[in-house]
Amino acid sequence: MLDIDNTSDTIADKDRKFLWHNMLPYNGNQPPMVVTEGKGAWITDLQGNRYLDAMSGLWCVNVGYGRAELAEAAYEQMLMMPYYPLTQSHLPAVRLAEKLNEWLEGEYVIFFSNSGSEANEAAFKIARQYHQQTGGHNRYKFIARYRAYHGGSMGALSATGQAQRKYKYEPLGGGFLHVHPPDSYRRPAGQSQMDFNLQCAQAIEDMIVWEGEETIAGVILEPVITGGGVIVPEAAYLDRVQEICRKYGVLLIVDEVICGFGRSGKKFGHLNFNMKPDIVTMAKGLTSGYLPLSATAVRKEIYDAFKDPAAYSHFRHVNTFGGNPSACAVALKNLEIMERDHLVERSRLLGQRLREEMQELLAHPLVGDVRSFGFLLGIELVQDKQTKEPAPLATVNKIIGECKKKGLIIGKNGDTVAGFNNVLCFSPPLSSTDEDLQFIVTTFKQVMSNQVQASD
Ligand code: PLP
User: Fold this and answer.
1) 184, 305, 394, 426: least CB-packed within 10 angstroms?
2) Residue 10's pLDDT is what?
3) Name one Pfam family in it (predicted).
4) Is the pLDDT of residue 294 over 90?
5) pTM for the predicted model, two decimal places
6) 121 CB less than 6 Å from ligand 1?
7) Which helix (H) or strand (E) holds 8?
């Protein structure tokens, strides 16, 4: 329902005057889209235009928009008991922690925060303190990969391997190191994909040895690099990284902020592989974005090192809003919906169909590679298929703009990865209907075919 004052012009003026947006370069003449409603995979803007949101907001609205059940869960919990800090306890947090153990298929103790960045910050602090308390006094460094994003706060940004996100904010936290990601599409000519992946894993072992194994606290990785260009490794890469972590007593931290909660076609991304992480971080799909909530799941044996009664041995980290009761109640209902509506299986099915459809575009002169993981797909655009020179940002933006004109919102890994802002991203709600999927495919193919004609 809009107030009298909510004409497009006044809202646009107020937006320009008062609101500071995420990641949006200032453009006084082009106000951002003001979204007013959502249902299923579709959103509506202030002018009444409808769009299929094939990015689920920011990779998070896994169960789709407009779920009254989630609103009711929040409302009921807010009436019953709106807030209490997790210095003590409350029912929704206990229930959710238990439920997450079921989803993780392992024994974990759960620390709640509000955002993916905070979940990763907690993971770094837990890892350092764990080593301090188990004899690894010098273990403070973390190894991450270039192209990966782990958050915007100082520690999480330090772990991020995207220089464009860091410019002008440095110096960041110390002790974060980066290695080459397993970006098979850009492997050296003549090298097999498997050899290249194993070489990338070997780079982690080399770094541990060169830095001194007694200084390395953890390796952080997403099962598949998502926002950094949908980089899907060979399973053998992850097996090898896990083996290396175990060999040197380095904790394996898996960032499931995007890959978690069905996106990958399994409950968590790492469950597609033979992985048993020491720490799992999660956010976004945990509540499908309906309320802020994140979690750091820590293997029970690691938590045991925090039971020592000696001074400063417990985890001295407080997060006022982390594990807010209504957010936990929404998360529980969100997981119930996913189970009831079989959305994890649906994600796998829709992901396969999307991949089959989009692979046809490999014949298109601009499409260098199509990569997917569950219902998450990336299309790498190039100017020249031989040299693999990335398509310019202007071309990428034009395609995104044309899709939007036709009512389809897609994303990109743009403005963040040096030289490689050329991967279009698709991450639609897992609840998308068959017709939604058809709309995504038909609209995108139409836009790509116009693109060929325009350049003829
Ligand atoms: N980790 C990954 C893989 C992400 O994609 C993001 C955000 O996009 C984060 C962490 C940080 O999450 P947040 O923006 O909730 O702090």
Assistant:
1) 394
2) 87
3) Aminotran_3
4) yes
5) 0.97
6) no
7) helix 8-18
Answer whether 256 contacts ligand 1 (Cβ < 6 A). no
Over 90: is that where the pLDDT of 418 sits? Answer: no
What ipTM does this complex have? Answer: 1.00
User: What is the rounded CA–CA span in Å between residue 312 and residue 315?
Assistant: 8
Unique residue bearing structure tokens 């799941």? 297
- How far apart CA 367 and CA 75 sit, in angstroms, is 47
Mean pLDDT calculated for residue range 283-302: 98
Report the alpha-carbon distance of residue 92 to residue 324 in Å, rounded: 9
Cα–Cα dist 140/145, whole Å: 17
Q: Judging by DSSP bridges, how do beta strands 251-255 and 279-282 pair with one another?
A: parallel
| ∠ CA 255-135-279, rounded to 5° | 15
- Minimum-distance ligand 1 atom for the alpha carbon of 148: 3
The Cα 444–Cα 449 span in angstroms is 9
Tens digits of residue pLDDT in 309-347: 999 999 999 999 999 999 999 999 999 999 999 999 999
CB 334 within 8 A of CB 295: no
Pocket flag, ligand 1, residue 269 (CB < 6 Å): no
What spacing in Å lies between the alpha carbon of 151 and ligand 1's midpoint? 5
State the DSSP H helix or E strand holding residue 334, giving kind and residue range, or none if neither.
Answer: helix 325-340
